[in-house]
């Protein structure tokens, strides 16, 4: 079994350009025009896809948190009311679908509950993402599998046993596994990028990706060097915007550099076979005194 899968017309896996996902998430704060500007920024940067989050607030919000009060741009409201404020409806998602098709960029979502899967089946997205918070929800994983679409799972806040159990529940076929630390933003000491190598060894048939929440761009390029075949980073228009994910997000100019760093890293890795390049031969003729096979 090859370590690759298809997202629409794109092959994702070893030997392929990394599939770069600009995670809009809920950074749009419920505003479709802000979402469109983030899509524009992702397109300009050269990302392969933008991703949103789809929840059914009453189902996905833990009961003990629903009535908790919090300060928001919409006033002092319950957490459940806030979740409704940042949730796009079908008409808005149809506009996102239309806009992304016009801009020629893939779009997909993280589904947080089973009704959200039913909702998203109205759209022809190339894959489903299951967030780290839902890795242990095996009923959700099995319901996503029934759609027949490729699946991405994130592994933040999970033990190796929970990862193995989640993979067993969803099945290895057509599955990308993303290393992730679910801290926003995440300190370098907790990124644990070598987990990419660990997951590659544990799941030799699956492409392994990296979902990063750090401040900065370097770790994502390092993730490529360690074998990640997909990269997901949050995108925002301004890290000072209101929202819990903004501080761990990348602004448009930074996302453009991020894509460039990833592509340069890919080009730089080579095949590991030592050779003398044509560009070296003039230096060899000028500088090498002793020729010894």
Describe the protein's architecture and organization.
- With 293 residues, the protein is an alpha/beta fold.
- It has a single domain (4-287), classed as TIM Barrel, CATH 3.20.20.
- 39% of the residues lie in helices and 20% in strands.
- The chain contains twelve helices and twelve strands.
- The chain has helices spanning 32-45, 57-60, 63-66, 79-85, 90-103, 114-120, 138-145, 160-170, 195-202, 218-225, 252-269, 278-287, and strands spanning 4-7, 10-13, 19-25, 49-54, 69-72, 75-78, 106-111, 128-130, 151-154, 175-180, 208-212, 230-234.
- An eight-stranded parallel barrel has the order 3-4-7-8-9-10-11-12, surrounded by six helices.
- Helix 1 runs parallel beside helix 5, helix 1 runs parallel beside helix 11 (252-269) and helix 7 runs parallel beside helix 8 (160-170).
- The radius of gyration is 21 Å and the shape is globular.
- The two termini are 40 Å apart.
- The model has no long low-confidence stretch (mean pLDDT 96).
Question: In a few lines, what is going on in this structure?
Answer:
This protein has 293 residues and is an alpha/beta fold.
Secondary structure: elements and pairs:
Elements: E1 4-7, E2 10-13, E3 19-25, H1 32-45, E4 49-54, H2 57-60, H3 63-66, E5 69-72, E6 75-78, H4 79-85, H5 90-103, E7 106-111, H6 114-120, E8 128-130, H7 138-145, E9 151-154, H8 160-170, E10 175-180, H9 195-202, E11 208-212, H10 218-225, E12 230-234, H11 252-269, H12 278-287
Helix pairs in contact: 1-5, 1-11, 7-8, 10-11
